[in-house]
Automatic annotation (TrEMBL):
The protein, known as: Heme chaperone HemW
Lineage: Bacteria, Pseudomonadati, Campylobacterota, Epsilonproteobacteria, Campylobacterales
Annotated family: Belongs to the anaerobic coproporphyrinogen-III oxidase family. HemW subfamily.
Claim: ATP-binding is one of the keywords in the record: no
NCBIfam families documented for this protein: hemN_rel
Cited function: Probably acts as a heme chaperone, transferring heme to an unknown acceptor. Binds one molecule of heme per monomer, possibly covalently. Binds 1 [4Fe-4S] cluster. The cluster is coordinated with 3 cysteines and an exchangeable S-adenosyl-L-methionine.
Domain spans labelled Radical SAM core: 1-192
Superkingdom, taxonomy of origin: Bacteria
Record GO biological process: porphyrin-containing compound biosynthetic process
Alphabetical keyword list: 4Fe-4S, Chaperone, Cytoplasm, Heme, Iron, Iron-sulfur, Metal-binding, S-adenosyl-L-methionine, Stress response
Species, as recorded: uncultured Sulfurovum sp
Length: 319
């Protein structure tokens, strides 16, 4: 936490943070629920003057380590949203995914969070794990909706290099139809599909901030920050980070790269793309997609109706 404080102080200067300017906070990466809430106190104290009233403050949590005492401690610090890494309510699938919690533990964790008073609760589900069927996913979604949540993130399983799964890529199945199925089942329950992997009766402001390419500070090993047109990467190695939290790699994006980012992020969500950022030829192609009812216009914005084909639409517009 000393390293974290040191970097945070430095970043607040870099970002020229003003009083009450922070709209959202996200505590994530790894498992925040293995860290005693007391240890977050200093960070919250440091941030307090900068946090806007009613800011959305999320913490990620693992169902097995998010105990009642931990959740209460985080609530007392001002956290108002919890995102639980549930992944599935199927015992065998959880085991195969190497998760340490049981379906029951996940349900208890969400119910406990509700009881404590958290305003916004979300859970993550995973699909396209080898052997996933419509029946299994339907059951996962139904069990999710029995809980007092207002948000679900449904992620397609991806295989990261360096993980146990990297040597057994067959754990991931390719089935585009399941993505549509999952989206249909979740929206049936009244949640809005507001980004390729995100659904809710409440749309996370923090998530939307990323997709609008708003500035964000990233503190901690492996965190990413973004300011104007530059990404900031502290070390991903925890020991190296602790030794030197101010050693940060910078990557500046060109105007073209920023435009491409805006297109991908805007069309894979309900954010949309401002027509004024497109050149004449791109606008012509986007208008053609409107004519073909692949996109629609909302004032100055081009918006997408089918997030699952957003990559193809972007590549078409870029020409
Ligand atoms: C933005 S989160 C969304 C999680 C969740 N589904 C929700 O709606 O709250 C997605 C992932 O990005 C990670 N993450 C968030 N902010 C980050 C940052 N600034 N740098 C690196 N990773 C970040 C989180 O730990 C999380 O695993």
């Amino acid at each position: 936490m000393i390293a974290l404080e040191k970097q945070l102080k430095d970043e607040l200067k870099r970002f020229e943070a003003k009083e009450e300017s922070i709209e959202t906070i996200f505590i994530g990466g790894g498992t925040p629920s293995t860290v005693d809430p007391i240890l977050y106190q200093k960070i919250f104290k440091l941030l307090k003057p900068y946090i806007k009233t009613n800011a959305e403050i999320t913490t990620e949590a693992n169902p097995n380590s998010a105990t009642k005492a931990w959740l209460q401690g985080m609530y007392d610090l001002g956290v108002n949203r919890v995102s639980f890494g549930v992944q599935s309510f199927d015992q065998d699938k959880l085991k195969a995914l190497n998760r340490a919690h049981s379906p029951k533990q996940a349900k208890i964790a969400v119910l406990t969070a509700k009881e404590i008073g958290f305003k916004n609760l979300s859970l993550d589900l995973i699909y396209n794990y080898q052997g996933d069927t419509k029946a299994l996913l339907k059951s996962d979604i139904e069990q999710a909706f029995e809980l007092p949540i207002n948000h679900i993130s449904a992620y397609e399983l991806t295989i990261e290099s360096g993980t146990k799964f990297a040597s057994t890529p067959k754990v991931r199945q390719e089935d585009d139809e399941l993505a549509f199925f999952v989206a249909k089942e979740i929206t049936k329950h009244g949640f809005k599909h507001y980004e390729i992997s995100n659904f809710g009766s409440y749309e996370s402001e923090h998530n939307k901030g990323y997709w609008k390419l708003k500035d964000y500070i990233g503190v901690g090993a492996g965190a990413v920050g973004f300011l104007k047109d530059t990404r900031y990467y502290p070390s991903t190695d925890i020991d190296a980070y602790i030794k030197n939290p101010l050693k940060i790699k910078e990557e500046s994006l060109t105007t073209d790269e920023l435009l491409t980012e805006r297109l991908f992020l805007g069309l894979r969500s309900n954010i949309g793309v401002d027509k004024n950022i497109l050149n004449k030829a791109m606008k012509k192609r986007a208008d053609f997609l409107v004519e073909k009812e692949k996109l629609f216009k909302d004032n100055n914005l081009y918006k997408n109706t089918n997030y699952f084909i957003s990559d193809e639409l972007v590549l078409y517009i870029l020409g």
